[in-house]
Please model this.
Amino acid sequence: MILSGKSIKYFQSLQSRILQTMDRHQAKTPYLVKGDNFLKKYECLRSVWAQGSSIKWACANFNIPRSSFHEAEKSFIQYGLPGLLSFSNNSKQFPDLEQLSLLVKKSRPSLSYTAIHRIAQAVPIVKRGSTSKLVSKILQSHGYGISNMKDDFDFWGRIQRTLDLWSILLKTSVNGRDKKNRKDTFLIDQDPCHKRFELLRELFFNPKSTPEEVCFRFGISMPTYYRLVADYKLYGQWAVIPALSPGKQSLSAKLQLAIILEKLKHPKWSPETIIKTHRLNVSRFAVFRVIKRWALENKDRIPIALDEYLDKETPPSKPFQPLKSAYHLLSEKSILDTRRINRHFELICNKMKTHPFHICDPGPLLLAPFVNDLGVIQAFETHGPIKLRGKEISNLALLNVFRILAGYRRISHLSNNRDRTVALSSGIGMFGSTSKYYEDTIAFEFDQLHRLRCDLVARAKELGLIEGLQIGFDFHLKEFYGNHSKEKQIGKGPDKAGNMVPGFRPHVAWDLATNAIINIAYFQGGTRSPRIIQQFCEQNIFPILDPLTVQELYMDSEYTKEGDFHYFKEVSCRNGQIYICLRKNKQILKFIQPALDDNKEWQPYDQEDEFRAIQVKLPKTGLAMKIIILRDQEKKENIRCFGTTNVQLSSKDILRKYRFRWIIENGIKDLVASYYLDEIFGLAPEKVEFEFYCVMVARLAYEYFLKELGGKYYNSVNGNKITLQKMRNLLFEKRNCTIEQDHAGNLILTLLDRQKKGTIEDHVSKMLLSLKEKGKNKVLWWNNRSIFLCAKNQYQFLQTVQ
Model:
């Protein structure tokens, strides 16, 4: 309620007037208020109703006009004691402006009256009645700026809640009083406020009465009595009306104000957009309720940005804390002290001291130190299933990783050959059964696999294998070739030909700067990008990579959704730019249709195509975007659209930049060809997700190997790296090799068919020696043994004889 200056002074003076009266009468309980007309009117009414005095005598004795008496009696009969209460308040009420002013003041206490008035002028429902003086009057009525004491808000808040209940009581009739039987109907149970007031009067005028006796007589508890006495000293006769509870709002004042300011700044934003921008944990209905309450539904309003003129109270932003990998949680010493090396592996190593073993696939052995440095063992012990954390250091994830690196398409293919390279690389002496492998795979849960993948990405970031500056997103379809896909709840997705086929669609994030995989996650075939892209980033990307450092995002046409553009550009990756091939949906066709109808301003791009650029503002979010339309010069067909939020970039540079997205396309092809991404069989999502994790380990381990090897293998002339499939032909498989153990316990791998010096064998040998000096050439599940590479021509003596 908005109070006048006279009303504010009246409530401020109540305490001193009550205390003066108590001191004069030497009373322990308050009742009389010096110079209060309410008490004189009540005592006159009481003498008639309780003591049987005549109205004429009572009015003359208390100096009250008879008209005032009859009016007071009528209110007393109808509303009880609250009907006699009144105070002088001629202020006009503005409930909407009052609520908005309090909401803003609670949210931002440092704002001035002028700033609050400026906000009120922007809100349609209150802008006409708002003035700076009225805002000041509202805030003073609620205890802001009266004496700047801490207790002011509590004092005036109690008065406001009391007045709110009083206004409700004046609309509710009290039945039970009768003029013909005044004495017997003076005190009634339907008027508890009157009983409280009579209790205080009895104790004030009868000092011999005890509180226990009087409270029992009026049916009032002792705690209520003590609370009533304390409140009466502050609020006078208004204390007999209990204040309403402040209650709890569904949304805090700060959150409501943030929604109002955001909606004023962006009239076209939907509740869902506001929720995603501020990452609110509320429903769309709650946000819409705030928008509707303040009449902000009109999307054609002129945008008003008030944050630029207000003191925005925001907590200091915390620096980004990337996820730390489990590699730093468990020391190698603690693992070696609590886990054992595989017994068969130790026996084979002891035999290799005197009898070298012949192998033909040296690749897994050479890549073992790099797999070890990715922290697979530490991650498995930290995040893996408890059931599979045995006494041995080696685990089935290592077996599967080295199976991929060795070039075996499936785990069952390991039993079809006699080469033990994969077994030695994974730290075991012999293979387990295929059925045992599949049973152990089912032990994984999605949550465990998610933590394993994130830990791997965090470790790759620590090693510099990924940067997270240029990121590409895409889906890959793994088609399901079995029967009864519908009964098995396998969704359908588009294949390369555009046909809807059953399968699952892993979502892939790729680092385009380093050409390395960032993450890959399992999704059903029916999953679409607009539904999961934000969830995928929040769970798999942004806990590890700082979103504010992302410079460029490259996406395919599947991601053509305005909400995704807003999420990346204005919510998460605010410093980055989006480059996307736009799907020609209804919205995009509406944008480009005028340009297609007009044959002007088209420029040649190459011998076959021409292009034209237009700049648009997206309707819901107001985000500026530049669209490049590319079409055939002769037939004016084969229209393709490319968009970007970098509106300052030239059209040809935008078309050239989008080619950068082909890195992820080639990367997925490499996962299929070299790492057998499509050779995953089975329906259990956890098993498929586990295979994805192993593929990630294999891909990043090989990437680490290339980075350390460097030279033309990592940075070739054409910009492409040597793929794992090509490296298998160069070095990793089908080689005549021996492996033995030297006196220091390290493994010596010798190539027996060396042709000439200066080849890749020499570069790898030098790299392994360099890693040994840095302390990185060691494998934990080999009991920290190192691996070295030697090369010789076993037929050199024949050439010498000739």
In short: Confidence is low (pLDDT under 50) at residues 798-802. Residues 466 and 514 are 6 Å apart (CA to CA). DSSP finds 31 helices and 16 strands in the chain.
